[in-house]
Structures are given as C-alpha cells and as structure tokens.
Amino acid sequence: MVRNWLSRYNLRYPRSLVYMLQASEYNIFDYLTWYRKTRNFNLVEKRKGLVRTTKSLLLLVISWSMVLFLSGIGIFLLLIYTGQFKYVFFFLVVIFSPHLLAYGIIIPLLTTRVMVQWPAELLIVNAAKRKLKIHTAIKIGVAGSFGKTTMREILKTVLSEGKKVAAPPHSHNTPLGISRFAKTLKGDEEVLIFELGEYCPGDVRRLCNLVQPSMGVITGVNEAHLQRFKSLERTVGTIYELSDYLGKKPVYVNGESELGQKNARPNHFVYSRKGVRGWKIENQKTDLTGTSFIMTKNDMGLEMKSALLGLHQVGPLAAAADIALILGLSPEQVKSGVNKTTPFSHRLELKTDDAGVVTLDDSYNGNPDGFNAAIDFLASLEGCRRFYVTPGLVEMGSQTEEVHRQIGRRLARTSIEKVVLVKNSVTPYIEQGLKEEEYHGEIIWFNDALAAFVALPLLTVKGDVVLLQNDWPDQYQ
Amino acid sequence: MKKTIAVVFGGRSAEHDVSIITAHTPIIQSLLALGQFDVWPIYIAKDGSWYSDQAMNDLAYFKQDNFLEHLARQKKVRILFDKGLKIIWPGIRQKTVQIDIVFPAMHGTLGEDGSLMGLLRMADVPFVGCDLFASAVSMDKVLTKQILAVENISVVPYTWFTRNDWGTDRSACIEKIAGLGWPVFVKPVHLGSSIGITKAKQSSELENAIEVAFHYDDKVLVEKSVENLIEVTLPIMGNEELRLAAIERPLNKTEFFDFSDKYLSGNKNGGGVNSRYSEIPANIDKELAGRVEDLGKRTYRTLGCSGIARVDFLVDETSRQIYVNEVNTLPGSLYYHNWKKAGISAVELVAKLVFLAEERFASQQKTTYTFHSDILKKAGGQKRMAG
Question: Chain B closest CA to A461's CA: distance in Å?
C-alpha cells in the first residue's frame, strides 16, 4: 500500500499520466476511469510506451511545469510562509499534488480542444459534408456494437468486383476520421462504405448527417461499451439512429444478434446464416481452410467459398452478396468477390508457425457475440488440441459478471481442452462459469498477457490450435 | 508449498552462452509456466563464480549492455552439499534456500562432462538428465567410440592423440591420420556444439585444423569423413522406458552443421536450432529410419544414459551404412523444437524430465551404499600375518 502511494511521487509519474492520455486517444472519460482504478503508477507502460508527438511532448512539458509549480508552493510553505498552519498546508500540498497534477493536466487539453480543435474540426467536417452531399456514389452506412469493420471489408471486397468502391481505412469511424477520408475522394467512386462509430447517444445520427447514407447495415447490438452507454436500451437507440435516418431506404439487420433481431422493423432485411431477403442458405461448412455455403433463390443457386472462418460469417457474406446483386453485379462477380474475402487483421486471422502450431488471432474481438462465435468455431475443430486464451472483455459495466460467467459456461459445454486465463478483475468470473458447468479440461493461469504469450510456444505442439481472444491495452490492465 | 528447483547454467566452458540460452529457453520459462516450482537460477560465471538471483530467471538479465557491471554488484552464493543442496547468501542477514531438485543446463566442460553430476550425487539430491558416468563418457568422443565399438555399434574409423603426443612425435600422429584416408574431420574430444571442428581435405590443411582443435582441448580426435553423407540426429528421453523424438536432418549449407547453423541462425523466437536449417522428420526411408531408431536406443542404453540425450548419426547414402557419431547428454535447448513436432510441448518435456529425475533418485535410494563394519576398531593393531 505504501509502495502504491509512493508511486505517485516517482519521477515517471507525470510521464505515466501523459502516456495514458495518449493510450486513451486523449479520451478524458477513459483516462479518468483508468486513473481512479489505478493503484500503482510505476508499471503503467507495459505493452507500449509513450510515442513522442508534438501533443504528447507539449503535455509532458506542461505536466513538469505543474510539478515545478507545486514544488515551489511546497518550498514556499515550508521555508517562507510563517502562518500558524504552515505544516498543515505543506502536508496538504504534498498529499494532493499528485491528484492536482492528474486532474490539472486535463485543463490545457480541454481548453485547447474547445478553443482550437473543435472549431478546426468543424471546418473540416463541414467541408467533408458538402463534398459528400454532391458525391454521386451510393453510400452505405454500417453501424453496430460489433462486426462493423468485418462487414465494411466484406462489402468492399465483394462490391469491388463490379464497382469502384472506397471506404475509410483502419477503424476510422469518427467525424474527423471520415472527413479526412472524404478529402481523398476523387469523385468517380461508385460506392462509398462508412463505418459509423458509437461512443455516446447521438453519435450515429451525427455521422449519418455527415455521410448521408442511402443504405444501411446494422451488424448487431450487445453489451460492448455498456460502461459508456449505461443501458442496453441507450445502445440500441444510438445504433438504430441509422435506421431512423434512412426511414424507408434499405436497412439490413443481423438476425443472429438477439437485440438486433428484436429491434428490427418490418421494412428491414434481416440476414442470418439461414438466409436473407428470400435467399435460402444451405450446406454451411467451416474449418481452418474457410467457410462455404450455397445460396438459393427461385431457380438460382450460388456456391460460395470464403477464407473467413466461422459460420457466423455466413450471414454477413450473404447480406453483402444480396447488396451486390441489388447494385447490379452479376452472380459470377458476386461469387468471385465472396471468394476473395479473407480474414482481416487480428479478427480470427489464421497464422501457422514453423512448428506447425495454428494461431487464430482474434485479439481485436472485444464483444460478447464475437466471443461466442469464436468459441463455437474453435469447438467445431476436430482432430487437434485446442487452447482458448483470453483476458476477458472490458467496458461491460453492470453486466461484467454475467457476461463472463456465460463465457465460462459456454466454454465448459464445449470440449476445448485448455483454457488459458490472464489474471485480472474479470477472468475469475470465467473460471466460475467453467466450474458451474463442470469443465473437464485444464485451466491455466498467467499473471499477465505477456507471460501467456511467452509461455504459449512452450505449451503447444505441432497441430495444436490456439485462439487468442481479445487483448487489453494498458489502460485496462 | 511449491518444490524448489535450481537450474544450473553458465560455467567455465566454451559453450557458456549456449548454456544460458538452454537454461532459459525452454527450461526456466517452462518451469515458470508450469507454476509448480519455486525456480532458483544458479549462474556460474566464466570466472567460476556462483550467483543466484531470481532476476536471472529472465533471459533479458544476461542481454543487458552493462551485464558485467550488474554481475559485479551481485553477492556470490555459497552452495552446501550436505544432505541435499542448499543455496546460501552469506552476510549479516544470511539467507538459505533448500533445493529439492536440480536441473543442470550446462554444456561442455566442467558441467555437462559429469563434474556437476558428481557434486549433485554427493549432495544426494535428485537431478535432471544423465548421471555422472554417462555424462563423463559421452563428453569424451574417443571413449564413447571405444565403448560403442565393444558393443558392435558402428563408428567411423578414427584415431586420437593428446597435445603431448602431438608435441613430442608429430610424425607418428600424422602417420596414424594418413592411414584413415582423406578427407578427415579434426575435433576437440571434449567439446560439443561443433566448436573447433575442421574438415581437412588434404595433409596441408591438417596442421592448422589440429592447432584449432588443440586451442580448445588437450585431446584430439581425427576421423574419416563419410562421403555421400546424410547427417541425422535423434533425441531420446527416458530411464528404463525410452521415448524417441523425430529423426532430424540438419540441412546444412556449409559442409557440416556448425555452431553458427545450430545457434546463431535461428529466428528471434527460436532460441534453439533454426527450423529452416533442419528437416523434421528427416526425409529418409522407413527401413533406414527404423535402423537409426534401433541404434539410437542401443547407444543410449550402452552408455547408461537416463533422462535425456541426443544421438548423432552419420549415414553413407550409397552403402546405407549407419555410424553413431557422438552422444550429447544435454542437447541444446533440449531440442524442444524437435519434441514439439513429435507431439511433446516444452512444458511437458521439462515436467517429464523432472519426473524422470525423481524416479531415478527414488530408485537410487533403494541401493545401500554403506554397511556396518568393525574394521576401524581392529585398525591400528598388530598386523596379522597371512598363512
């Protein structure tokens, strides 16, 4: 406890604060959540380190200036001030200085944001809005608690077989990210696909006003970011802002998401591994080589094969195929497009090492539905020893315990041989779930994710399959 | 309470650095991953000083730029071999840790050669890997060949001499070598990891090759080179019941699989032999593979190996003759890359080796080493005359 308290007086303390602001992408809410729960500030830069940018260096200078200022006050109270309570004031300054620094550093950040960043961003966003308004491309908005990037990439790959398609790279799903992307558009694009990020109510509506979609896909709703939204109703409301904006225009909704299905409106097209808009899906198969299925409607049959892993990919692939057909692509182009879809970086991405150990990197998958899909896929693999590795989920709010116990119970019902858990505040709930369902495999614990990553090559043999499910950045450690 | 296990590595050997790698990857890392042991590293520096600090469980400790400065600040430890092994940190606040099992991770001289095993036998503590006798014999390539030959296990024609022989009667040594035919391999007798080995294709290259070998050893082995060569190696584990890994074939780009190929060309995660430089399992026919496995087991048993060892073979592809080349009682990094492909993970391998150590120790405890005698009472009296 004393060591934890003293860690606030370590010379690295100001740097740790600035690092965490940077790691939280200067999101004050995330930063303050981390600050309130952190006890020891000596080991903050675990997975990454402070990247020297103008912003981070400026904040570092400001934080050290604050340290010098607070030290000056302390020295003044101790040596010059002669009042009756000089020692009381001095100790108060010593005790509260670390907190003053942690909260004080936000002030210049907020000031700059309000005075400079927001007005500048408003100009950029307005320019993008004007450009997108006159752009003749069909604009597809993709919203949801999970699976947005995967849907965007599937659509982009499939539609590119017959159309000139563009979409913001990486996870650029904020007004500024999308606006910067809009600046790069040449005007001859035929389809634009936008991932619409949601951080608080109103976000999706704002993004819709910016990109002005004519078609939408809702990939599902679940507990992701529940800590920010406080209730699932608010999450549903925010994501369905896309549907509100589109009105009678086409909206595809993932029927495999319980909340997605429940909130779908009569005019929505619900897609799932069973079918979409009159298409029936049969012969679904999945293994380490990919996923295949047959879509049939009237007399038409389309045999699809994708390198994406897991049957949960069938629905999104079918929806993308249907959208492509509506937009005028030929069945052959659609089949070819689906055939070209491959796992995206860190999303059930298959890697095989020299020793013949298969790793399924699902480290960017941080939502309950994604967890379930990945567990089901791992459980479906036969003839190999299977390892499931996870630190659990973050930002589950009041649902934290139940969500993780469900994961444990689901794992126990499979015959997955090894469950590797990283010690933190949520994985004991997974263990509880495993025990509730009398899991027969082996539970292996590691103190942190790095220790698990170091040990995994030592635990595995040729033919083993290791699923790395989610990864926690430093602010959640 | 967790059992304490000491991993001993480093040492006054040309393979000091390789030993550090073996100790960490996979031994210490696997022991830590197992979570069943309190792991104590015992590091023997190149000057022979003994250190122990759990910070040394991290390989990064030995990769620091100022490693020697760090080491200079470390307190040397004392080891007590009295009824078990104890590590003692002397000082006002003296600390002692009783060790339950020892995992030797030393390569080459003054460690793998039986020296350490002798100390551990004296301490009466279970230890992993081959015992004193197998370690000492296997470390001497000439002695190994001599023993195997008695058991009708094929070895390549060879000769040997000491530094003294070379200094006093060089022509006699050269004459013995000439009888083997060219080319030949010149090897230091007691070194592993292919250090100091040279191929001499003609007599003009011989002296230099011998000088290189004598730089590392005082006894040199010269053996006939097997042409049309397939080099294979077979890691074996067990005490009585043996388990074989996969037959591995080094895919050497140089003329033979040298130290650099083995340890320096690996990828960043490997720590051991680079898979690009070896073929696992070796692409040899079933009949040949069966003979290699049979010879491997016979060699292992003949030398009295236990725990783990690796038998190296030279195969003449044309005549299909198989020769046992040498035996390594502590394969670099336990050859875990090979075991992994054979279906045994590093953690399982290390756990199994610890089990085998305890099994052998329990068996040894059944042997009586002392007996009651009144000879001392009678000693010192008038000597009885025979007859």
Answer: 5
Checking B120-123 for CB contacts under 8 A at 24+ apart, the result is B120/B85, B122/B81, B123/B81, B123/B82, B123/B83, B123/B84, B123/B85
pLDDT digits (tens, 9 = 90+) for A28-65: 888 998 898 888 888 787 777 888 888 899 999 999 99
A351 CB neighbour count, 10 Å cutoff: 12
Contact A369, A380 (CB under 8 A): no
Is pTM beyond 0.80 here? no
Question: Are the CB atoms for A378 and A342 separated by under 8 Å?
Answer: no
Q: How far apart are CA A166 and CA A152, in angstroms?
A: 10
- Residues 6 or more apart whose CB falls under 8 angstroms from that of B133 comprise B114, B304
The rounded percent of chain B whose pLDDT value lies above 70 is 91
**What residues in B contact A447, CB-CB < 8 Å?**
none
Contact (CB<8Å) A459/B33:
yes
Count contacts between A and B (CB, < 8 Å): 50
- Report the residue from B29, B32, B343 with minimal CB separation from A461: B343
Assign domain B3-129 to its CATH architecture. 3-Layer(aba) Sandwich (3.40)
Question: A236-250, pLDDT tens digit by residue?
Answer: 999 999 999 999 999
Partner-chain residue, chosen from A355, A459, A463, that has the shortest CB–CB distance to B347 = A459
| Cβ within 8 Å, pair B345-A454 | no
Q: Please say whether the dihedral angle defined by the alpha carbons of residues B322, B325, B327 and B328, taken in this order, is positive or negative.
A: negative
Give residue-wise pLDDT tens across range B208-223. 999 999 998 899 999 9
B229-365 domain in CATH 1.10.10.410?
Answer: no
Closest CB from B30, B276, B341 relative to A355: B341
SS3 category, B22: helix
What is the per-residue pLDDT across B275-313, written as a single tens digit (0 to 9) for each?
567 899 999 999 999 999 999 999 999 999 999 999 999
- The two three-digit tokens of residue B83, written as one number: 């009824």
Q: Å from A351 to nearest chain B CA?
A: 15
Question: Is B157-224 in the same CATH topology as B3-129?
Answer: no
Closest CA to A325 of A136, A163, A144, A148: A163
Summary mean pLDDT of chain A = 92
Mutation for testing the A interface, residue in B276, B336, B345, B347 having most A CBs under 10 Å:
B345
- Are B29 and A455 an interchain contact pair (Cβ–Cβ within 8 Å)? yes
- In a mutational test of the A interface, the residue from B278, B340, B341 whose CB has the highest number of chain A CBs within 10 Å is B340
CB-closest option in B29, B276, B340 to A355? B340
Phi, psi of A435 (to 5 degrees): -70, -35
Strands B50-51 and B78-80: unpaired
The conformation of residue A348, written as its DSSP 8-state character, comes to: S
- CA trace torsion B108, B110, B111, B113 (10° rounding): 70
Instruction: State whether CATH 3.30.1490.20 applies to domain B157-224.
Output: yes
Count the neighbouring beta carbons within 10 Å of the beta carbon of residue A443: 16
Indicate the domain borders of chain B.
3-129, 157-224, 229-365
- How far off is chain B from A19, nearest CA to CA, in Å? 24
Interface test with B, best of A352, A446, A458 (most B CBs within 10 A): A458
| Cβ contact, residue pair A458, B347, below 8 Å | yes
Joined together, the tokens standing for residue A152 give 């965007």
CB-CB neighbors (< 8 A) of B337 in chain A = 355
pLDDT level of residue A448 (50, 70, 90 thresholds): confident
Stretch among A246-255, B185-194, B343-352 having the lowest mean pLDDT? B185-194
Cβ neighbours of residue B111 closer than 8 Å, sequence gap 6 or more: B8, B11, B13, B19, B44, B104
Residue A354 with chain B: CB contacts under 8 Å: 267, 275-276
